[in-house]
Amino acid sequence: MQARRPIERVRSFASGTLGAPTTGADTGMRALVTGAAGFIGSHLSARLAADGHEVVGLDDLSEGLLENLEGARSVAIVEVDLRDAAGVARAAEGCDVIFHQGAKRSVPRSLVEPILTTDVNVGGTLNVLLAARAVGARAVLASSSAVYGDQDSFPLHEGMLPRPKSPYAASKLAGEAYARAFSSSLGVAVVSLRYFNVYGPRQDPASEYAAVVPRFITACLTGGRPVVHGDGEQARDFTFVGDVVEANLRAAQAPTSTFGEAFNVGGGATPTSINDLLSTIAELTGESPDPIHEPERRGDMRYTAADMTRSETLLGHRPAVGMQEGLRRTVEWFRSSLGGP
């Protein structure tokens, strides 16, 4: 594992240095978004900024890209490693809410780098909770449907016993446990959100551990051969990134009865098999890809489907973007970013 190095360097797309909260804003809040230059974090940061809130974005830029925030130029970026407790605490000063999106993602990578995954995901979450407690901020934590593992019945609901199959899943479940403990014993107002296979514009297809949607779209648009692991009949509850942003905003305003709890954030539709996903993307791109079939990946779940009852009832969140529309928007973005017509 690479040696830790505290990083704290302020970059701003506008005027920002990190000081007292902006005055004169009647309803705006000051929000810290960890992983702000990443896929979900950049969408969330842009939405908060567009809604008139003051946004501090924390990212170590090991994976996130500043270009992801070009549409949110008022966001002040602080380059800090999540494992740097003092740096996280300073970034949280004056904040009303912390949206914790930063993590080492990917089930396959966690099998290769379990120590790094645990160090960043568990230790980083602990630092966020400590910072939230110190400044009296609410916290919304990004968890994962991976905590469920393989279950015997569907859809997956929050009352099920988690069965994590990978270090990544275990690290997310540990974060939830810390959130519950900080809520019940230390009075931190924190909610965890279990994301189900998030996809959308700006998702990175280049990583070795990239998610399936950007990999399939990029392969179709560039004449490549998409890789299908296993028989392709494994099915996922895919969730458009815009709906994940909405869920975070709802969680930040959730009642006290939700503190310490975890909630599903799924797509609200019938799960889609990997084979059907590729067929839909092929249709949207106008291509006929010839997939490469490889063995199934260790640690992967066979099937995911979110029961959204508690999220709808207690958070007031209901997904709004269906799979076909979400994929259409995502394909359009990738086509534009790749210089297509």
What does this structure look like?
The chain is α/β, with parallel strands linked by helices. Helix content is 37%, strand content 16%. It contains 10 helices and 14 strands. The chain has an 8-stranded mixed sheet, with helices on both faces. A two-stranded parallel ribbon has the order 8-11. Helix 1 links the parallel strand 2 and strand 3. The longest helix has 22 residues. The radius of gyration is 19 Å and the shape is globular. The N terminus is likely disordered.
Which range best describes the helical content: under 10%, 10-25%, 25-40%, 40-55%, 55-70% or over 70%? 25-40%
Tell me the fraction of residues in β-strands, as a range.
Answer: 15-25%
Supply the number of helical segments. 10
Mean pLDDT over the residues: 92
Overall form:
globular
Strand order, main sheet: write it out: 1-4-3-2-5-6-7-12
First-residue to last-residue Cα separation: 43 Å
> What order do the SSEs take from the amino end to the carboxyl end, as H and E?
EEHEEHEHHEHEEHEEEHEEHEHH
Computed over alpha carbons, the radius of gyration is 19 Å
Largest sheet: 8 strands, mixed
Q: Give the low-confidence spans.
A: 1-8, 12-26
Number of strands: 14
Q: What structural category do the secondary elements indicate?
A: alpha/beta
